[in-house]
Design brief:
It is found in: Cell outer membrane. The protein has 808 residues and is mostly beta strands. It contains 7 helices and 46 strands.
């Protein structure tokens, strides 16, 4: 989809909102809140009554409007404890809310994952200096056990459960982030989020027209431009909105290559006098990169360090041309649209409706050498291949770009009724989602100049004699999700006791087909009941205890779980569909205490997880392309304690400290090659025992500064615990100044952001988990299972970004 087409589409949707909104039975009259109140965040009329029983609607859940306050042009109030990381929470669940106080002092290149890096239990390893490519785990659980919502819609890949936070929104438009660990709100359109649910909300459009702009430059050639236009209230319609756009360019910090990102955000809101709202949110993102990181084994990192990168030059006829960086193209476009709306039906009954649509397509390409004398199409021999522009190397093979093209469409809706009856609130809802995923491989011949005809593989690819494109996999997967849910919340003992319990039942139906010979049709149905309950008791306005129990499940992820992926040289599958589609099922519990004082705020909580048929996501190299796969490692348990403490800003200073202790253990032996590895009792991979973060913020309304650091202890990268990622630490900093208004330039701000201040040379993430890094005897002694080396993420070097921003 071209950018100009998307721009026209966004304009059309905005105009559509203007046209349909006035048709509502009521119109907006006098405003119920002032702009000053909105700058600090204010709920829509009637929301307090609606949320009185909501076990997850904590204080600070209001919409954020960023028309400027306390000398800031973009929403800083300098009132949130912990420098913007510890909003006051009063619900039944363990949640953190990050506000503009923290978000605004971060670089525009950051994303939602980077913004939560200091919260308890969060482990974030970034492979570049600007935080655009992070690896995320929470409480030892990877993205596949986490839920992600953006403006009411489930965001990310619905098959692999992977999220792409750089696509959601620009940082300047993020109003707040909510991270709920453990039990999540039953109305959220997710079913796999036993670890946590991350919810991102855009700022509310201001009532007055205006604009906001930012320009950033940095090392490694970083250049970024951002502009937001705000309509203000349009006439007396009650409609207001904004549209923004940004462009980012940077060079690879190690090795060759460059990256581009173009992004559009838009949000329009229609408010009614009775508190009803209609919102229309649309975001578009396109990214293109030849700066893909090469992930080393421990041995490769010890030998080459950060210089372990793809080759910068293409040498005609070389057998190693498959390591040329331009062949590792990554090109991706995405469109996300949602319309979260609330309508009053009676005095005590309303309905919340959120239809949504997601579209993504792109390529994640690799490279290999291919023998043109013959290959296999599925399990059938091809004879000689047709390969225009191919150059034969000394080894008799031709260098190919391995194309991995994918196309995804998701449409769905999530709706629920909310009924207040006496001391109780009832919610009854239905969630439906349809998702189609098409993924095709192809081989693009590389010319003597190192170029290919089409990185998407649609023209000029290697074909059979009959014209069919040679592929080692071809998949079409359709998924239908149906979920019904209900819950009840009641407040007792003068509202000191809040109790919530609910039940959700979700069906996930998947069908997979392939055009390649030898691939059977695969049908799978996963359905699980998901009960949950939570409670909170307030001793007084400052001290509370809370507890919850939750359940979640997920079906096997990755294309390789549903179709054969072939070795084109032999016709033998490199991976085959899962023998069993038993979903992972998890039960989690939490109990905690929180205190909100005049100066000090702190929370401490203990948690426990039990996971059955634990699915671990990994990658393997198949014909030069990284292919994801899911592995059932049996049962796993995890328990730990987390805590955070922060201060209300005092004389400009606002510190924050968080930490977590985690013990995660594998309960079963790992099946492989018809035998078992002795993994029972081993520590679970991706589960560091200790995680800690600390930060100190100073802000006097003009001058502001922030220094923050994190520590992650060692973590195993194999199921056998015979190799580990060493402990690491990262220190980041920000410094800036807010100037007075100069004519029409309102509250200009200069910000200097620095990442990895000490320029640590270290590994910061596990890219590919393996069963064993050393040859290991099976449990029955019958087989010596060969070693397979894990791969790792090299931490980004020192990065610096200077930004100048202002409102107009």
């Amino acid at each position: 989809m071209k950018t100009n087409h998307v721009s026209r589409w966004l304009l059309a949707t905005a105009l559509g909102t203007l046209a349909i909104a006035p048709a509502h039975a009521q119109t907006t009259d006098a405003q119920t809140t002032t702009d000053t109140a909105e700058q600090a965040g204010s709920s829509t009329p009637g929301s307090a009554a609606r949320e009185r029983f909501d076990g997850t609607a904590d204080a600070g859940d209001s919409d954020i409007v960023v028309t400027g306050s306390r000398g800031s042009a973009n929403g800083v109030t300098n009132s949130t404890p912990g420098g913007g990381l510890m909003s006051v929470q009063t619900g039944t669940k363990l949640r953190s809310t990050i506000t503009r106080d923290y978000i605004d002092v971060q670089a525009g290149t950051t994303n939602s994952f980077t913004l939560i890096r200091n919260l308890p239990g969060v482990v974030l390893g970034s492979g570049d200096p600007f935080g655009s490519a992070p690896n995320l785990t929470i409480r030892g659980l990877s993205q596949t056990s986490l839920g992600f919502n953006f403006e009411g819609m489930p965001i990310g890949d619905q098959l692999s459960y992977s999220a792409f936070p750089s696509e959601w929104s620009d940082t300047e438009n993020v109003g707040q982030l909510n991270l709920t660990r453990g039990s999540t709100d039953i109305t959220a359109p997710v079913y796999n989020s036993v670890g946590a649910l991350l919810q991102s909300e855009l700022i509310m459009p201001p009532k007055n027209p205006g604009a906001f702009a930012s320009v950033s430059v940095g090392n490694y050639g970083l250049r970024r431009y951002f502009l937001r236009l705000e309509t203000g209230e349009i006439g007396n319609t009650g409609i207001r909105g904004f549209v923004s756009g940004s462009r980012t360019y940077s060079e690879a910090w190690r090795g060759p290559g460059v990256s581009y990102r173009n992004h559009i955000d838009s949000k329009f809101v229609k408010e009614f006098a009775n508190g009803d709202t209609i919102s229309l949110v649309a975001t578009y993102n396109e990214s293109n990169s030849t700066a893909g990181a090469r992930n080393p084994t421990l041995a490769q990192y010890a030998q080459f360090g950060k210089d372990f990168a793809w080759n910068a030059e293409y040498v005609p006829g070389s057998n190693t041309n498959n390591e040329f960086y331009r062949l590792r193209a990554n090109d991706r476009q995405s469109l996300s649209v949602s319309m979260p709306s609330t309508f009053t039906l009676t005095d005590n009954l309303d309905v919340v409706v959120t239809p949504y649509y997601l579209y993504t397509h792109g390529v994640t390409n690799g490279a290999s050498n291919l023998n043109l004398g013959g290959a296999f199409f599925g399990n059938e021999p091809t004879g000689p291949l047709v390969a225009p522009r191919a150059v034969i190397n000394p080894n008799g093979a031709a260098t190919m770009m391995n194309v991995d093209y994918y196309d995804q469409h998701t449409y769905g809706q999530n709706s629920y009724l909310r009924w207040n009856v006496g001391l109780a609130q009832f919610r009854l809802g239905y969630w439906y989602s349809n998702f189609t995923h098409t993924e095709l491989s192809a081989y693009q011949p590389v010319s003597a100049e190192g170029t290919v005809r089409d990185t998407f593989g649609k023209t000029g690819s290697v074909t059979l004699q009959d014209g069919r494109i040679l592929r080692n996999f071809a998949a079409r997967i359709e998924q239908n999700v149906n979920g019904v849910y209900a819950d009840m919340t009641t407040k007792l003992a003068d509202d000191k006791l809040l109790i919530n319990f609910g039940f959700k039942f979700v069906w996930v139906d998947r069908t997979a087909t392939s055009e390649l010979p030898g691939n059977p049709r695969v049908d799978s149905l996963s359905a699980k009941p998901l009960p949950q309950a939570s409670i909170r008791y307030s001793f007084d306005d400052r001290n509370q205890v809370f507890a919850d129990i939750t359940t979640a499940f997920r079906a096997p992820s990755a294309v390789s779980s549903y179709i054969n992926i072939y070795n084109v040289a032999t016709g033998v599958p490199s991976s085959t569909p899962a023998a069993s589609f038993e979903p992972e099922y998890s039960v989690g519990q939490e109990i905690g205490f929180r205190h909100h004082g005049d100066l000090v705020h702190f929370t401490i909580a203990a948690f426990n997880y039990d996971l059955t048929d634990r699915l671990v996501q990994g990658t393997q190299l198949v014909g030069g392309t990284n292919v994801g796969f899911a592995v059932n490692v049996g049962d796993q348990s995890a328990r730990g304690v987390e805590a955070e403490i922060g201060l209300v800003p005092y004389k400009g200073f606002s510190p924050y400290v968080s930490g977590q202790y985690l013990k995660a253990e594998t309960k079963d032996n790992y099946p492989t090659r018809g035998v078992f590895l002795p993994t029972a009792g081993k520590r679970a991979a991706l589960s560091p025992e200790w995680v800690a973060s600390a930060g100190l913020r100073y802000d006097d309304g003009k001058l502001f500064a922030l220094v923050e650091g994190s520590y992650v202890s060692s973590q195993y990268s194999t199921f056998m615990n015979d190799q580990e990622l060493p402990s690491y630490h990262v220190i980041n900093g920000s410094l800036g100044y807010r100037f007075d208004t100069i004519g029409f330039i309102k509250k200009p701000q200069f910000t200097l952001n620095m990442t990895n201040l000490t320029d640590e040379k270290q590994l910061v993430g596990i890219q590919g988990v393996t069963p064993n890094a050393l040859p290991t005897r099976s449990t029955d002694g019958s087989m010596l299972i060969p070693a397979s080396n894990p791969t790792y993420t090299i931490g980004g070097g020192f990065g610096i970004t200077a930004s100048l921003s202002a409102a107009f």
